[in-house]
Amino acid sequence: MTQPSLWRVLEPKWRTALQRIREERSRGGSGKLLLLVAVGTLFWLAVFWMLYVILRYFRGVEELGPLLAGKLLGLVLLSFISILVLSNVITALSSFFLAKDLDLLVSAPVDWLRIYLAKLGETLLHSSWMVALMAVPILTAYGVIYRGGPLFAPFAVLTLFPMLVVPAVAGSALTLVLVNVFPARRTRDLLSIVALGAAGGLILLLRVIRPERLASPEGFRNLLDFIAVLRTPTSPFLPSEWATKAIMTFLRGELDPLPLVLLWTTAAGLVTIGAMLHRALFAPGFTKAQEGAERFVRGAWWRWTVGTLLGFLPVAKREFVLKDVKLFFRDTTQWSQLILLAVLVVVYLFNIKALPLHRGEQVGFFYVTLVSFLNLGLAGFVLAAIAARFIFPAVSLEGRHMWLLRSSPLELKTLLWSKYWVGTVPLLVLALLLTGLTNVLLQVRPFMMVVSMLTIGGLTLAIAALALGFGALYPQFETENAAQIPTSFGGLVYMMATIALLGWVIFVLWQAVYAYVRAVYEGQPVVVTAWMVLCFAVVAATCAAATALPLWVGLRRMERFEF
Amino acid sequence: MIRLENLTKHYGSFIAVDDVSLEVSRGLLYGFLGPNGAGKTTTLRMIAGILRPTDGRVFLGGDDVHRNPIAAKQRLGFIPDRPFVYDKLTGAEFLRFVAALYGQEGDTVDRRVAELLEVFELASWKDELVEAYSHGMRQKLIISSALIHRPEYIVVDEPMVGLDPKAARLLKDIFRQFVSRGGTVLMSTHTLEVAEAMCDRVAIIQHGKIVAEGTVDDLRHQHRAGDASLEELFLKLTGGAQVRELAEVLGHGGDDGAP
């Protein structure tokens, strides 16, 4: 029998993607596309500009310049490859073992190699597209600064492609082995914790060793030591190092085919080994993947704690909140992200503590107040990102269950209310902790403490409402994975709206804080003027409007949902 | 009584339900039949308040489902065709959650949950997450959830799909008892034997319009079908020619040597 082509095996996937684009177009999605392209281009330009400035500086440094540029590229590609292995492991689990098209593919007379290659391609595409896009402005900057010429672009593609294949094969193989040891659904739980724990640990480690100190030359005995460190490959057996070498050699105008040969042969060799492993282990692994996660759960603990705490609420609201809390903590893919969040908060506070504001010469109160003030914006941005991940998908995740909620006498107001507070309360605790602790570390004065705590409180209420409102305006009912929902167009619009809100609030608040700073600086008594009161009132009104309006719009939108 | 007045639903230029009017009296088990894509599910979802009609009204015991939804839905139990349930809740938790949506809680609900799980043979699974349930078990859980708050009306879309024969028989008994106590069931089904055996009256919908309505005997009489079965009547009303064509296609396949 003639086997179908890979293109044919993947047909449902690409046809679905094409259909989505068509639907988007028919809904007047060209505006969306334009916005996406604009934001993407801006992001690319920002990355390009940053790299361009750094590389231009490196180019000006004799001897050390190319070494530093090579080292930087090596580090970037190494971090890419580390991220790719983790993301490929998780993506491979979905595409090889949990995807909906597997029943059809496995039951059809399609040979194992085609299934392997099709699924490997799918895994590669899903896990690497973001890294590949990110590499474009970075490599463009290298090409421009070191005058790579028109051949540099195809050469970079030729170098990067096998570098992306290697982690895809390695990740898929690791998943294949893990699924044969644990059932797939358990493996997913395990992997979420391990991957996020590892990523968190890595971030923490990188920050705590304070890499910025390595950049100071006094850390090395002499220049030769420094050069020797730069010449040493970061990881001589890793494809990222070969890719770095290939690119840097090309940019220097030399010809050394070895790194490219190493990359391509390793990729080809690994695909072969991966295919053999797939042949031996896929069938038993796929069978195991069909096993449900068997475990008995007793929800009494939540009932006694959260249920009792919310005893004052009407039964429908209470049970709705209780349901959301249970669903969150029983889904490892959801709560495990809290590990990463905790790590990021620690790193954030560590960074504030590491600021040289209170060392050596006493730094004026102006800088302390300024940092505390700017910290509001930064904390707001962190909260916006967290809300995008946890609150924005809340309405979308109810999509499949709307038959129950809409056919019951539950008011949509109640549903929105529950979603809002389930998301807002932990966010508010985090916001106040983050701002309060930062202010304590910065040793700010009581005025700034009160202003920043009240502002971040108001902002948090608004950020949560915006996340929920935009989540209702741009629902993604078909997406099963909550983590994918914030990366949609609606997620982008929400982030832009939130950043605009943050910018406006910071701008208005600065008018009041500046009057206070000037008074203290000039040694005058701080008097709360009418201007300051007006500024505070505008901030309060903005936060109130940014809370009420999105919730109202979200509610209206939800009333028009059809399932 | 369930009453539909000129119920219409458009999806863009496509008319899914076209000016349907219907009355289902109390104490009746009413069958809603029709080929795939005829508009059954859309109609039922409008009755349950999930979809908003383009035009027309739905009344449940005098309350308009879309103008006075809380009062209307309080009396309703809806069983959808696809059993989407919260995967990370246990069966017992799901039933308690549904009861809470109808404002019910406490010992009475706990007893009712235990009873229903026992009746549908899910008692030993009550503390298991729904993600481990089979399709049939999920279907049983959803049926239980529609009964948990003791509704007056049950609207059910393809109730027998995924149920084993024992559960299917149980469901038939439950529905019969429910209507004998004054409840009303509006049921869409493809299983015409079930409809013929269970339903007091039936309506056949095609291309969004009701093409026949009454008892099975009424329909036979109206369409001069003698003692034809409901299946024959159904095919006659909804395009039996297609079935014959299908048989011919399958027959040709056999001639070609297919097994």
Secondary structure blueprint with pairings:
The complex is a heterodimer of chains A (563) and B (259).
Chain A: H1 6-9, H2 11-26, H3 30-60, H4 64-98, H5 102-107, H6 112-145, H7 152-181, H8 184-208, H9 223-231, H10 239-251, H11 258-289, H12 300-309, H13 315-330, H14 332-335, H15 337-354, H16 365-390, H17 402-407, H18 412-442, H19 446-473, H20 489-521, H21 530-559
Helix pairs in contact in A: 3-4, 3-6, 4-6, 4-7, 4-8, 4-10, 6-7, 7-10, 7-11, 8-15, 10-11, 12-13, 13-18, 15-18, 16-18, 16-19, 16-20, 18-19, 19-20, 19-21, 20-21
Chain B: E1 2-11, E2 14-24, E3 29-33, H1 40-47, E4 55-60, E5 63-64, H2 69-74, E6 76-79, H3 91-101, H4 107-119, H5 135-147, E7 153-157, H6 165-180, E8 184-188, H7 192-198, E9 201-206, E10 209-214, H8 216-222, H9 230-238, H10 240-255
Parallel strand pairs in B: 3-8, 3-9, 6-7, 7-8
Antiparallel strand pairs in B: 1-2, 1-4, 4-5, 9-10
